[in-house]
Specification:
The protein has 2 domains: 16-203, Alpha-Beta Complex (Spore Coat Polysaccharide Biosynthesis Protein SpsA, Chain A); 216-312, no CATH class. Helices cover 41% and strands 17% of the residues. It is built from 11 helices and 8 strands. The chain has helices at 26-37, 57-67, 87-99, 121-131, 162-167, 178-188, 216-223, 227-240, 247-258, 274-289, 298-312, and strands spanning 16-22, 45-51, 71-77, 107-111, 115-117, 135-141, 158-161, 192-203. Strands 3-2-1-4-7-6-8-5 form an 8-stranded mixed sheet, with helices on both faces. The longest helix is centred in the last third of the chain and has 16 residues, at 274-289. It is globular, with a radius of gyration of 20 Å.
């Protein structure tokens, strides 16, 4: 994979590069690139993966290339129509491109073309990761959450430690659940992940406006999610509005989880290995059983969990 440079001791000037994914988002891309360029700790390289844009994306990239001191390279893919399922393959293309170059990196950053980062965003996350050798995936957040809420790292604004990325093979699986796979894999290997909610960024698009949560349930199934936390998540969203997912989006997510037969011929529907799936369900069970309300009749709830697990898997 891209060169070895990271170590257990904190780095005064960590080397990182940023992958920015875009498709027909010229005006938003302009703002995102500016946001990354003006970071107090800016990347030494930005790789823009253009998934067949037909708007002014190319001229926006060229304009930034001529105006900034940061190196900006572009990977231009052919126009194949919109398909969000290609995102992991596009990210992998960026990593392959960087790997073919001689520079050595400590971290990488993943961004969409609609992200606006607070000026100290990258410096804040890298400072935390430098001080904790076991922290291998981290992001800030764009949502305002109630105190004490624990969330996994976001997909956009995500930093990945290079040594860990090499350890897991140096590429994302091109399958539903790819984004969460990296987080569970890190925890399965004994590393830490973090969502640093005090470090802020924002999206210019509304959540789910492109994919409409169509594949989220299928991703949960490939990762081995237990049905109980899936149903509870949807119910909580519908009742309390916990996540910014519309009514129809929640129903779509639940249906694609409960009835995955529609995806059986889909090449992106590839279940992850049994060891990872079991790890995911064990983690979910521990989280569920930590609720005080379930301490009564604990053995009953665990038995019911196992019965449903056998039915679904």
């Amino acid at each position: 994979m891209a060169g070895k440079r990271d170590s257990a001791s904190p780095l005064l000037d960590p080397a990182y590069w940023s992958c920015v994914l875009t498709r027909n988002g010229a005006q938003m891309l302009r703002k995102t690139l500016y946001s990354i360029e003006r970071q107090t700790l800016a990347p030494k390289l930005i790789v823009v993966v253009d998934d067949g844009s037909t708007d002014e994306t190319r001229s926006v990239i060229e304009s930034h290339q001529s105006k900034t001191k940061i190196r900006i390279d572009a990977i231009r893919l052919p126009e194949r129509g919109y398909d969000i399922r290609r995102v992991p393959a596009n990210i992998n293309a960026a990593y392959a491109y960087v790997e073919a170059n001689p520079e050595k990196w400590d971290y990488s950053m993943i961004s969409g073309d609609d992200c606006i980062y607070s000026r100290g965003y990258c410096a804040s996350i890298l400072a935390r990761m430098n001080l904790d050798p076991q922290l291998v995936v981290a992001s800030g957040d764009w949502q305002t959450l109630s105190p004490g809420t624990v969330k996994p790292p976001q997909g956009a604004g995500r930093f990945i430690k290079e040594s860990f990325w090499r350890e897991v093979g140096g590429k994302y699986p091109v399958a539903y659940g790819w984004e969460s796979w990296l987080l569970y894999k890190a925890q399965q290997l004994g590393y830490r992940i973090a969502n640093l909610q005090e470090v802020r960024f924002s999206h210019l698009r509304s959540s789910g406006s492109v994919h409409r949560f169509k594949y989220w349930g299928a991703a949960m199934r490939t990762l081995g999610f237990h049905p109980v936390p899936v149903v509870l998540r949807v119910a909580k969203n519908l009742i309390e509005g916990t996540e910014p997912i519309p009514f129809q989006g929640n129903l779509t997510m639940l249906a694609s989880y409960l009835f995955p037969i529609r995806y059986r011929s889909d090449p992106y529907f590839q279940c992850f290995d049994e060891g990872l799936q079991q790890f995911v369900r064990q983690q979910q069970l521990r989280t569920l059983m930590s609720a005080r309300k379930l301490q009564t009749f604990r053995q009953f709830w665990i038995a019911a969990w196992k019965v449903l697990e056998r039915i679904f898997y």
